[in-house]
Design goal:
This protein is of the alpha/beta class. The protein has ten helices and 14 strands. Strands 3-6-9-10 form a four-stranded antiparallel β-sheet. Helix 7 links the parallel strand 11 and strand 12. The longest helix is centred in the N-terminal third of the chain and has 15 residues. The protein is globular and about 65 Å long.
């Protein structure tokens, strides 16, 4: 018997959802609903200083207004809870204990200024300064993962096609638990996104991940962690971001309000869904209104272009 597909959307309650967020949520929801799968809402509130409960509630209300629903989540419960990352720290700690890690006291400024540090596609590659135990004894320490010798990853993205990265060459050993600077008025310790998302996707049985193309570079690191922790790797799809008619990243200059502003302003959600669907190649240019439910029968991920989509509301 084939296991039921499971997908998720995982917003961070640090701000209002914009139309780019809405497009990704719609695509990930359609991908699962078109296959008769289970859809999970997970709140990624790892940042204790920026995450707000009020924003979480607003985001969920906005997504429901758009026509999306979910089978499991912080507001509806389910067998794989809790569904807020802030309530799952013990799972992350247990995973961390099974990995080869070391303390690192390098500051971001030091890493930026390291003349010998190579640079990958995402910025400076960690040069391994603290790998041999030579960290500063009086500084708060982050926890880095010592990468395995073979850190080359290749995977088939369902939208972008074949993807690959040598994580050692492009990233280096990366942080799994950020240092606690609260004693000096700084940020408290915080679990890194890479570890938390891998642990949660594994524990929740997620089989399909569709997210924005801006998160593509995280995928090789997450696949390496999945291998190290003995977790299955979901199928990944990274949707290109949306742009305005001028080809630049969508923002308020294009008259693109956030979802809450649209909802509270009395906008027809079907008009918003139609604009999102047009930008993703799901409907023709003449479609002015459509519900999320109406898009399910004909949804095909192959329709989503690899290039950024132009969104005109």
């Amino acid at each position: 018997m084939t296991a039921r597909v499971r997908g998720r959307y995982a917003p961070s309650p640090t701000g209002r959802l914009h139309l780019g967020n809405a497009r990704t949520a719609l695509l990930s929801w359609l991908q699962i609903r078109a296959q008769g799968g289970a859809y999970v809402m997970r709140v990624e509130d790892l940042d204790p200083q920026r995450s707000k409960a009020a924003l979480e509630g607003r985001q969920l209300e906005d997504l429901r207004w758009l026509g999306l629903d979910w089978d499991e989540g912080p507001d509806v419960g389910g067998p794989h809870g809790p569904y807020r990352q802030s309530e799952r720290f013990e799972l992350y700690r247990a995973a961390l204990e099974g990995l080869d890690t070391y303390p690192c006291t390098c500051t971001r400024k030091e890493l930026r200024e390291a003349a010998s540090a190579p640079h990958g596609m995402g910025g400076a590659v960690y040069p391994g300064t603290c790998r041999d135990g030579s960290c500063h004894p009086e500084r708060p320490a982050s926890t880095r993962w010592r990468l395995p010798e073979d850190a080359a990853v290749a995977f088939e993205d369902r939208i972008l096609g074949p993807c690959s990265q040598d994580v050692s060459a492009e990233v280096g050993d990366f942080v799994l638990l950020r240092a606690d600077h609260s004693a000096t008025g700084g940020a408290p310790a915080a679990w890194a996104y890479q570890l938390a998302v891998v642990v949660d996707d594994g524990a929740m049985g997620i089989t399909e991940v569709l997210r924005g193309a801006d998160l593509w570079a995280s995928t090789p690191r997450q696949i390496l962690l999945q291998r190290a922790l003995g977790l299955p790797t979901p199928r990944y799809a990274h949707a290109p971001l949306v742009v305005g008619p001028d080809g630049n990243k969508l923002n308020k200059r294009h008259g693109a309000p956030d979802l809450s502003a649209l909802r509270e302003g009395g906008e027809d959600p079907r008009r918003v869904v139609a604009a999102l669907a047009r930008s993703a190649g799901l409907v023709g240019p003449g479609v002015e209104r459509v519900s999320a439910q109406e898009l399910i029968p004909d949804f095909d991920l192959a329709q989503v272009p690899r290039e950024p989509g132009v969104l005109v509301l």
